[in-house]
User: Which sequence fits this backbone?
């Protein structure tokens, strides 16, 4: 909601790393993890049941079907005005953050891109959705993000006391 007496241009940003290959247990402090590699982020704009959506499809070509690290994730918005960036680049870990911050803070948008190249082994990339809107004084809007994932095979690591179940692949 724009509670001021003047019009306002607003923007939100949702950035995420492509997590395919991450074991869910190790501490991540960068875009590096031994499970990462061949990760691809693809920006997609589609109509789903009469609703226009823009999203980033986060996948990997590293793992075969049946491997617990094989899967995908999607970051989506239903907002009609949005920019999307598939991959932030930089030589050092924080370079991409500075590039993103400089670009987004300039006007609330990111440079549109379609798809990233497969990441190098041991690395992954960050993607961003950045919806924006113009709100007149007193006007409101809703900007929704949806985060979904599909990892069909899991190793049962939580029943550590039950030797018959612990370590079993669940589908």
Assistant:
């Amino acid at each position: 909601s724009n509670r001021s007496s003047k019009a306002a241009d607003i923007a939100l940003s949702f950035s995420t790393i492509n997590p395919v290959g991450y074991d869910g247990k190790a501490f991540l402090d960068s875009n590096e993890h031994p499970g990462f590699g061949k990760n691809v982020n693809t920006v997609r704009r589609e109509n789903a049941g009469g609703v226009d959506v823009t999203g980033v499809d986060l996948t990997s070509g590293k793992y075969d079907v049946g491997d617990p690290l094989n899967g995908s994730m999607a970051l989506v918005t239903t907002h009609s005005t949005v920019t999307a960036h598939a991959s932030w680049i930089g030589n050092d870990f924080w370079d991409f953050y500075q590039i993103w911050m400089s670009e987004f803070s300039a006007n609330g948008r990111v440079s549109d891109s379609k798809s990233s190249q497969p990441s190098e082994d041991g690395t992954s990339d960050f993607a961003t959705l950045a919806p924006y809107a113009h709100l007149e004084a007193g006007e409101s809007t809703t900007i929704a993000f949806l985060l979904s994932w599909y990892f069909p095979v899991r190793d049962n690591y939580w029943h550590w006391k039950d030797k018959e179940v612990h370590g079993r692949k669940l589908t």
The chain is about 10% helix and 35% strand. The first helix runs from residue 93 to 107.
